[in-house]
Amino acid sequence: MGTISTSSELKAAIQSLSIRQAEESALLKIQFRTTCDHLRPVNLIKSAFRDLTSSPELKGGIASNLLSIGSGFLVKQVISGGSFNPLKLILGSLVQKGVTNLVSKNSDDIGSFLSGLINKFTSKKP
User: Fold this and answer.
1) For the chain, what is the HEC assignment?
2) pLDDT tens for residues 10-67?
3) Residues near 16 by beta carbon (within 8 Å), at least 6 away in sequence
């Protein structure tokens, strides 16, 4: 703005600044509501989950971890079952740890073997 020399110029400048202030205030309120909405705990969790599931590296890591943990748990249940025998429980935990480590180290090979098996059984025979 240039120098203001008359009262009419002053009134016009004040009116212009008032309009500008109202517009910026409205934009600020909209941005505040948007920020509050993004910071709600539900939206933060959704955003984090979306980021996790959209990353291809993490998808493979999650799948292999679930496979190794699940197989270890399954083996422990087979060995110890519903027994309360301390030796069976200890043996089940040790075998679970070993199977979990083994599957996690060889998850790519196991995954390709399982996908081959699935393809073999689901493909139509001529």
Assistant:
1) CCCCCCHHHHHHHHHHHHHHHHHHHHHHHHHHHHHHHHCCHHHHHHHHHHHHHHCHHHHHHHHHHHHHHHHHHHHHHHHHCCCCCHHHHHHHHHHHHHHHHHHHHCHHHHHHHHHHHHHHHHCCCC
2) 999 999 999 999 999 999 999 999 999 989 988 888 888 777 667 776 666 777 888 8
3) none
Q: 72: which 2 tokens? A: 């270890």
The pTM is what? 0.49
Reading the block at residue 107, the tokens are: 């998850």
Length of the chain counted residue by residue: 126
pLDDT(84) > 70: yes
List all residues 6 or more positions away from 99 whose beta carbon is below 8 Å from its beta carbon: 68, 71, 72, 75
Q: Kindly state the tokens that stand for 29.
A: 């309120």
**64 and 107 Cβ atoms separated by less than 8 Å:** yes
